Amino acid sequence: MKFLVTGAAGFIGFYVVQRLCEQGHQVVGIDNINDYYDVNLKLARLAELDSLTNFTFIKLDLADREGIADLFEREQFNRVIHLAAQAGVRYSIDNPLAYADSNLVGHLTILEGCRHHNIEHLVYASSSSVYGLNSKVPFATSDSVDHPISLYAATKKSNELMSHTYSHLYGIPTTGLRFFTVYGPWGRPDMALFKFTKAIVEGKQIDIYNNGDMRRDFTYIDDIVEGVIRVQDIIPKADDTWKVETGNAATSSAPYRVFNIGNGNPVKLMEFVQSLERSLGLEANKNFMPMQPGDVYQTYAEVEDLFEVTGHRPSVSVADGVERFVNWYREFYKI
Predict the structure, then answer these.
(1) Is 152 a catalytic site residue?
(2) What is the Cα 129 distance to its own chain's centre?
């Protein structure tokens, strides 16, 4: 089949492109290569993909309406995996307008492309941040997600609502994946593991929010990608018997579905830091700080519905995942 993968120079997109190409699919990847974090890391990921004969990269911004429309018209994709977005909870506090262009307008241009070109299945990235003020754990896709606490989270919830509308109006099968704290080799420099590793290696302080009293459902990149690849083959179907009053919020009468994709095993932040210290053989200089605006105390994914549908249960432990990241970091940065 022929796939469009948006955010192909990004962390998850890079791995998804690799897996699809290994399976023999034709893949067109797009990315605007913005400078939210080190552009050189994005270019290095693309360089790794350069040897794939069934991969084509096009530099393109999601908010370029004509460019996206022309891309769909020219390439005639079978399926779309939409991973591009302006990421970051804290960044959204100070740079809200960046999220409107990438996450709202950008998502709409992809939906419009799918609408006009009979796309078999749109799989898109949502986020665990949509759970917002929820305190019940684990977070289940049947829970209310009506109280986000960051603009980033609000845009991801909006993506789910927009997708449902297009599934309902035009019969486009859509599946949203709420990612939980993804980490691993080639990861994003704005995420905790990368930031902590860089600071510890350079002998600098690491900022630990809420005085270390936080828990995260850290999910290794291989487990995330396995879930994405399996889900794209499971196309939602319309269900005329589904009702708002009695149905699960993660499903619909339309061909629409939402899944959590996480480890399902939250880890204390300080345990995560200790795993990193062991892997590096260095002790971190810790700067304990209060909770930051937009942050949540705990993330914890209920993933039984994903397991039931795909047969995949995340399996990589934090200790193993952190060790693999550190080995990659040392090799990539030659330290």
Answers:
(1) yes
(2) 11
